[in-house]
Amino acid sequence: MKRPLRAYGFVALMLAGVVLAQSAGSHSAVTPVPRTEESWLRRQQQINERVRQGNVDLIFIGDSITQGWESAGRAAWEKHYARRNAANLGIGGDRTQHVLWRLDHGNLEGIRPRAAVVMIGTNNSNGADNTAQEIAEGITAIIHKLGEKLPQTKVLLLAVFPRGQTPDPQREKIAKVNSLIAGLHDGQRVHFMDIGPNLTNPDGAIYPEIMPDFLHLSPKGYEIWAASIETRVAELMGEK
Which letter, b or e, does each residue of 73-110 get, where b requires 16 or more Cβ atoms within 10 Å of its Cβ? Predict the structure, then answer.
């Protein structure tokens, strides 16, 4: 049965967030807001229901590329993460501001995972929506929020994956974002890692068999992702 939007107060919360952002001279990438699409609301509810079940030692936070662990990445997820009591906190189409809102509205409630894998920001990079600096600030706000909510959780912050068949202005913006967020690495709570080179060929072009639409990963792409971070995930979870 569908739950009415008014139960969540989404519209009021969104308007309040916009007003606060304007009064603070902020920008969209750091202003926590929900989305109002019914599919998004259902996914948000599903995530909250999963974390309320507990038994969560590892979380993945992101957008459609992260949510894709449940479709194209299902085999790799079962192989690498099911045994680790992992939870997928990805929602397709999300930007940094949506993740920020979700972290305060149930996605982390009652859990204390050993590690979190974060990869977000590509949807902020479209056109003139946000500058590289603004996107980096949005990602930084997420890392800080995780520190507030889950101070004992180790964070593996991934560089935003390359997109587009060959290098272009949007890819350049993403590269600038990655150079900025690399500075969040402290070697203790936050660990930055760029696996982008594993997804492209030597001249920077993306292999269609890894990213069929030059954005979302294929099953092979998810296996590359999992293999690329395996050692670091194991270390952050205290397995090695």
Answer: beebbeebbeebebbbbbbbebbbbbbbbbbebbbbee
Q: What is the pLDDT of residues 40-63, one digit of tens each?
A: 999 999 999 999 999 999 999 999
**From 28, 64, 104, 105, active-site residue:** 64
Q: Cα–Cα distance between 240 and 227 in angstroms, integer?
A: 16
Per domain, the residue ranges of the chain are 5-236
Q: What is the pTM for the complete model shown?
A: 0.90
CATH says 5-236 is which class?
alpha beta
186 is catalytic: no
Is 185 noted as a catalytic residue in this protein?
A: no
Of the listed 129, 168, 186, 213, which one is catalytic?
213
